[in-house]
Amino acid sequence: SAVISQKPSRDICQRGTSLTIQCQVDSQVTMMFWYRQQPGQSLTLIATANQGSEATYESGFVIDKFPISRPNLTFSTLTVSNMSPEDSSIYLCSAGQGGYEQYFGPGTRLTVT
Amino acid sequence: TQLLEQSPQFLSIQEGENLTVYCNSSSVFSSLQWYRQEPGEGPVLLVTVVTGGEVKKLKRLTFQFGDARKDSSLHITAAQPGDTGLYLCAGAKEETSGSRLTFGEGTQLTVNP
User: Fold this and answer.
1) CA angle, residues A34, A40, A45, in degrees to nearest 5
2) Mind listing the pLDDT tens digit for each residue in B38-65?
3) What is residue A85's three-state secondary structure?
4) CB contact at 8 A, B111 and B83
5) In angstroms, what CA-CA distances link B6 with A17, A32, A105, B36?
6) Which are the contacts of B113, defined by CB distance < 8 A and separation ≥ 6?
7) What is the DSSP letter of A13?
8) Which of A47, A49, B50, B65 has CB atoms 3.0–4.6 Å from A76's, for a disulfide?
9) Are strands A108-112 and A10-13 parallel, antiparallel or unpaired?
10) Measured between CA atoms, how close is B99 to chain A, in angstroms?
11) Minimal Cβ distance to A102: which of B30, B41, B101
């Protein structure tokens, strides 16, 4: 398994601004992912963070709104750009070794006012 | 269209009761995972099942993967208040990469003392 940390754990931001969320894994991993979740609800995959290349986005998510970086095998960032109240959510990163299992960070709770 | 249908969505029971959560799909999955999530934390992997008909036990939790690999169930015996949480099933489809998961809607379980 992998231990994953995220920063910040929570933030309150004004509309129109941007927030960058960091995800750090304690070991090298093949795959890293970013999800969005409303409290008590399911997870929606935003994108797969690819090391050394552009992220792969799911339908409904675009790079201009959610730019993602993955400079190495242990670290990734997700930026939520030009935020609106609809972006208020929990953002989770996960990591896997290319098999079926994923391990999740504790999440970043974002509130946009 | 939700690929994985979870039921029930909400379940409130008394300590000591048994319960079953179901995860159903019309699609075939290479594997299926069950996660539990508590408020303010990320999902924690409980089990992965990969073989049709497979049964795995984790203390009082029993997980089963359907013969056709389209459905799964989670049975908890003698539930405890510590079992309270959001239970999520997640499947990896054969035609996508092994790591990309589709999540069910989740089952919010409350075990009352």
Assistant:
1) 20
2) 988 999 999 999 999 999 999 999 999 9
3) helix
4) yes
5) 36, 25, 23, 14
6) B15, B81
7) E
8) A49
9) parallel
10) 5
11) B101
CA distance B39 to A91: 14
Mark yes or no for CB contact B101/A99 under 8 Å: no
Greater pLDDT, A105 or B96: A105
Closest-CA residue of A relative to B32 is A100
pLDDT tens across B19-38, in order?
A: 999 999 998 998 999 999 99
Measured CA to CA in angstroms, residue B82 lies from A1, A96, A101, B54 at distances of 23, 27, 24, 26
Identity (one letter) of the amino acid at A43? L
Q: Do B40 and A107 touch (CB under 8 A)?
A: yes
Retrieve residue B39's tokens: 């408020």
